[in-house]
Amino acid sequence: MPRSYIIRHAEPLDARGYITLIKDILSETPRVDTPYAPDEFNPSFERIRDRIMEVRATDNSLFLVAEAEHEVVGALTCGGGTLHADRHMTALGVYVARDWRDCGIGGALLAEAVRWAKASPVVERVELEVYARNARAIHLYEKHGFEHEGRKRRLYYQDGEPMDMLIMSLLLEKKRG
Ligand SMILES: CC(C)(COP(=O)(O)OP(=O)(O)OC[C@H]1O[C@@H](n2cnc3c(N)ncnc32)[C@H](O)[C@@H]1OP(=O)(O)O)[C@@H](O)C(=O)NCCC(=O)NCCS
Predict the structure, then answer these.
(1) pTM, rounded to two decimals
(2) Which residues make Cβ contacts (< 8 Å) with residue 96, sequence separation at least 6?
């Protein structure tokens, strides 16, 4: 039977669940494909709570969570550009708790983000970076319309190994006023 979850905009009180989710993911063994070491993600509850409120008041940023069994089991963030020159750009990141992977949550979060970006009057470019070896994430991004733009070679070291990152983006045509 499919496991049930909901996708929704983050509320300020989700800050604690979000921090726990990301800390748990960064502490996994073997490590997930992200450059952050576990001790490099230490935001306060207040900082994430304030970010969630800030995102709700902007039109080029997004903070979604997946909730299941009263816990935050996935999150997707889009951080919009803050300059006049890049207000049309938003940078995407997505994480799903280990026990909930391959249940469709990452895909559902991405589908919702793409729907939001298409409906947004300002967002014309959604971009992301992904480890070149992260086949599952790349598959999902391609499935949701993201195209390959380039490769940053040997950008990060992970467990002593140099890692390439792929740059991917989704471009959306919008009428400019
Ligand atoms: C990447 C991630 C967000 C995907 O979320 P998810 O909930 O597991 O994804 P879904 O269940 O919606 O979909 C997984 C898809 O990948 C496919 N897949 C699984 N393993 C795969 C592999 N090794 N190679 C290619 N595709 C794979 C599944 O078949 C499924 O495809 P489908 O929808 O066409 O059937 C999640 O696995 C995760 O958080 N990983 C750790 C952190 C991470 O890598 N984040 C991305 C950083 S850029």
Answers:
(1) 0.97
(2) 66, 73, 74, 105, 106, 109
